[in-house]
Amino acid sequence: MTDAAQLLNESDAVLLDFDGPVTPLMPAPANMHAADAARQAVTAHGVALPDDIAATSDHLAIIRWAGTHAPEALADVEKVCTAAELDSARTCTPTPGAHALLAALHAAGKPVVIVSNNAAAPIRAYLERHGLTTYVRDVVGRPHLRPELMKPHPHTVERALKIAEARAQRAVLIGDSVSDIEVARTTSVGSIGYAKTRQRGVELREAGADAVTDAITSLIDRGHLA
Predict the structure, then answer these.
(1) pTM, 2 dp
(2) By the 8 A CB rule, do 101 and 5 touch?
(3) Which residues 6+ apart lie within 8 Å of 128 measured at CB?
(4) Biggest alpha carbon distance in the chain?
């Protein structure tokens, strides 16, 4: 497996997932509060929920489900989920090393595009709150009312590559989920998995990550960006 810092150094552009690599956007209990609000938006339309959706703490899973099974409720689900993400963006704390990494990438002349299944507005609010907007070329967030285009669909990554003006083979995606690795493989983008736990590291490697790191700080400390 390639060294993560080396892969980052050799890239021309960086596509960066938000929730995880930049900040834990929806830590407990915020995640369950968002999921509960999303469920209420669905049931307000008289739609019954299957057991897995009724129990999940993942509001993104409910958005996906509503897009397929309750399209009449999707706009309301999207609205409450975006509001919950915005609330969290006002208080969530940085992932150690994330802000330093953004500054180092900017100093190295590597364009950064945020590519996330979270809505763009909360991400921009977080970047503005921490004075990071100059380090990010743009934000490609959850396609509005089009959950089928969320990662691992290639739509958002392909948009990000155009914004970064980079060839897929010269770009790298940093993400903490299997879907990040899957979309990187689909689009021929290099991938660095951010493993917050040992089990997540196993999952990211099995998904085909080109490199895995357990700390964002290591991407600077072991590389040449600092």
Answers:
(1) 0.95
(2) no
(3) none
(4) 56
